[in-house]
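Internal ticket - ligand job 323, NDP:
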Amino acid sequence: MRGMLVERLGAPDVMELRDLPVPQPGPGEIRIRVEAVGINFADVLAVAGEYLTRTRVPYTPGMEFAGIVDVLGEGVSGVQTGVRVAGLGGTGALAEYAVVPAAGLIPVPENLSAAQAAAFPVSYFTAYHGLKTLGYAQPGQWVLVQAAAGALGTASIQLAKAMDLNVIAMASTEEKLELARTLGADVTLLQDDPDRVQKVKDATGGRGVPLILEVVGGKRFQESLKMAAPRGRVIVIGNASREPAHLQPGELMKRNLTVTGLWLTSLMSDQEATREAAQELAKLVGSGKVTPQVGPTYALADSARAFQDLMDRKTTGKVIIEP
Ligand code: NDP
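stdout (structure tokens):
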């Protein structure tokens, strides 16, 4: 089968299209014929060797995908071949076939296309946990969404609006802000607007924002603390700037702020939190209230370009690769 292979870590063009053996499912595993792969910022960081966990080479990237159940490994029950599923695994999806543990399967609402299903698991579970599980968002509250036109950003705006929150969306270009407004953002701000801190205060009646989904990091992390309301929560989800961030405990103490880290991989092992998120998300997606935003779509052979475009901030919605 055709698949992408990384033999040494580095920039996206270290990935090569190769002829690879079709993977065989072991006990408790399922083989999927991959239809669409969702590309996350984490995939780019993993290929660069800069992710939260160590990347072992050689490997085939791709953690999030949708496809058709092909072969069941020993001991797998309750799953039918020929059915479309979404999968969330460690690696291996950038290929014609991928093997995933049965526990990594996510049922797909019937109203989603393969690309929409591949755009769903990482961004929507992360957004849900940021807003609800760790953010304790309440209807009528303000939330600040950074990188608002990206995969996580668009999911966060949609979910926040479905939860009756007021959204301040930040992004780097007017076109990106236009997308955020289309999805329901109440206030939009250019990431480099020189008056952004004051404008956030003004929009929130002078108090600041009670909940901030922080994905940029570096200097922007300190700025998020300035934009937060007293007793506000900053949920640290990403560090797209790849710059170090500094935290002064005194600044948290003075305004009773909370900084909470969020990593979806470790939250997925919390079965209760995952079940609750899955139920709520299934209702919202099934009813059409939220629709995964499919971004630019690339062929498998163009995977490196897809990764580079994501890193260069050229994309909106979820970048998709179709093997
Ligand atoms: P996106 O589709 O949001 O793409 C990344 C976006 O980040 C860019 O479009 C850009 O938007 C913004 N950005 C800001 N600063 C930079 C920079 N210096 N370099 C590159 N991009 C920058 O990607 P994802 O939805 O996959 O991820 C968004 C963030 O959320 C990432 O930080 C990612 O690591 C994190 N994340 C974390 C998870 C977790 O479990 N902790 C799960 C999912 C995502 P703009 O041009 O508008 O600034």
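Auto-summary: The chain has two domains: 2-119+293-322, 123-266. The chain has a mean pLDDT of 96.
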